[in-house]
Amino acid sequence: MDDETKQGDLFEDSEDPEVKEKREEILSKIRRERELNSVQSRVAYVLSQYPETRNSDVTLQIQYWQVFQRRLLSGGMVTFDNLYELERLTTLKRARAYVQNTLKLFQATDDQVAKHRKQLDEEKRQEYASSDVSAPSLFVYADESGKNADHLIVGSAWMLSTGDYPRFIVESNEWLDEKDIDYELHSSDLGKYRLSEYEEFIKQFVLQEGLIGFKAISIPNSGFSDKDKVIADLYYWVLRRGIEHELETNRISLPRRLSFAKDAEEEGYDERVLALIRDQLERDADTLFEGDLYYSTFGAIDSEEEILIQIADLFTWCVNRKLNVIPDKNDLNWKDDFALWFLDSIQFNLQQEETEKDRAVALSLNSPSIDTESIEIYETPESELQRFGSAGEEDGDDE
Q1: Of 43, 136, 143, 234, which one is least surrounded by beta carbons within 10 A?
Q2: pLDDT band at residue 105, thresholds of 50, 70 and 90?
Q3: Domain membership flag for residue 393
């Protein structure tokens, strides 16, 4: 189903145009889980992802605090001092009433939703399902590297759990503001004098939080007449095998809303690669994922706009150094040390050949344009890092 289908289009045409516009704005923000910067949009997000909050304002308040204001909770407890900063029940109640009563979204009972759906014809019900913002999200951010090296690489960072993404964005931005960091945490901005900031961020938000996991795929870079097509295939296989792996290990279930983005490069190149990836996913969607994989967003994003693109870039850059740079060197420099430290910290073992579930594994895949025996997917092992994100660009100078 076309991802432009809008849930708001299913309401009466005679209603106030401003209400329809506001509903669509809220739904768009929830689908992308971006720009959730108002109480109304955040309340709507919580109502969409946590159905139990639709019937209780107190439950809504607690979940809102846990998602958007967790830093003010001390071990899950509320202190008197923090109570003044936490969003008040009356404010949340007004926002909930507006979302449910004015925008007609995320109604209080399942019976009301069912009654509404029964009034739709079959086509409209299918459109409603395919754009259902209540389905849990799956975030995948990715990037490629090694176009002029021995190995082509696509790396990806994944985030699996409902509520993790908006909470991560809020808390990571607060940390960056507190540290007065005005540069990207990107491989191109990595400098020896910035190592401590990079390492501190990774320890706090990648390791301790356990929100982000990583997957990468590589192939020897030789003999390809259409390298763009090969790179698109690598993106496709990371997505397909990554989703299959999460289903096999019961860390996710369907339906899911896939939010995928690669690090933006040239517009024409990105458009072609994204079209190739999506064509393959849509071709296999019904047979592989039973028609229960929906698209929330699917595109290219400038790393400046998305911290998880930066993390993915950094991860892919580290894999690139491990595969394409370090093997040819006798002496390691600080960049190599950082790359090895990062990969070791997330327990990402490129040499792991065991095939137990949840361990780093090497898999042979089938693709019409790739030598199947030369592809290897590397996955993070089972640990406290059971989530995911995206990847980076080609390695820069070796200084």
Answers
A1: 136
A2: confident
A3: no
Whether 176 and 85 map to the same domain: the answer is no
Residue 220: give the domain boundaries.
137-379
Domains held by the chain: number = 2
In a domain, 30, yes or no: yes
Look at residue 398 and tell me if it is in a domain.
Answer: no
Percent of the chain with pLDDT over 70: 75
Do 125 and 15 belong to one domain?
A: yes
Q: How many CA atoms lie within 13 A of 72 on its CB side?
A: 18
Domain endpoint, select from 74, 103, 130 = 130
d(CA 94, CA 109): 18
Could you tell me the pLDDT band of residue 5, with boundaries at 50, 70 and 90?
very low
Same domain, 174 and 306: yes
List the one residue out of 295, 292, 315, 303 whose CA is nearest residue 389.
Answer: 315
CA distance 360 to 215: 9
**Number of Cβ within a 10 Å radius of residue 54:** 22
pLDDT for res 379 = 53
* pLDDT of 256: 86
Strand partners, 217: 154, 377
In a domain, 389, yes or no: no
Q: Which amino acid is at 339?
A: A
Same domain for 194 and 288, yes or no, is: yes
Note whether 159 and 297 are same-domain residues: yes
Environment class of 254 (CB within 10 Å of its CB; exposed 0-12, middle 13-18, buried 19+): middle
Rounded to whole angstroms, the Cα distance separating 121 from 99 reads 25
Integer angstrom CA distances of residue 86 from 36, 43, 89, 348:
17, 14, 9, 38
In this structure, of 62-66, 247-251, 260-264, the range with the lowest mean pLDDT score is 247-251
Which of residues 74, 107, 130 is at a domain's end? Answer: 130
The tokens 């699996």 sit on which residue? 160
Answer yes or no: are the C-beta atoms of 391 and 158 closer than 8 Å.
Answer: no
SS (H, E, C) 319-381: HHHHHHHHHHCCCCCHHHHHHHHHHHHCCCCCCCCCCCCCCCCCCCCCECCECHHHCEEEECC
- Supply the mean pLDDT for the chain: 76
The answer to whether residues 153 and 260 belong to one domain is yes
Band of pLDDT at residue 265, cut at 50, 70 and 90: very high
- Looking at residue 120, its pLDDT comes to 40
